Amino acid sequence: MHEMAAECILKRVKKVQEGNVRKESIFYYIADKEKAKTYQKIVLHELMRSKNMMIKSIRDHER
Fold this sequence. Notes:
Layout (H helix, E strand, L loop, with lengths): L1 H5 L3 E7 L7 E7 L2 H30 L1
């Protein structure tokens, strides 16, 4: 989440809980939908690559 906020994909907003100044909540909002879609494609590609590597390693181990 911090990485996506740093890349301006997400916007991070802190809100103080009413009646209690010491408690705050942090909300994330999508700031740039195009960047978010691109980031999603990259993450999905990396996950598929990792999955395929694990499958290959399991198959190699079974031999």
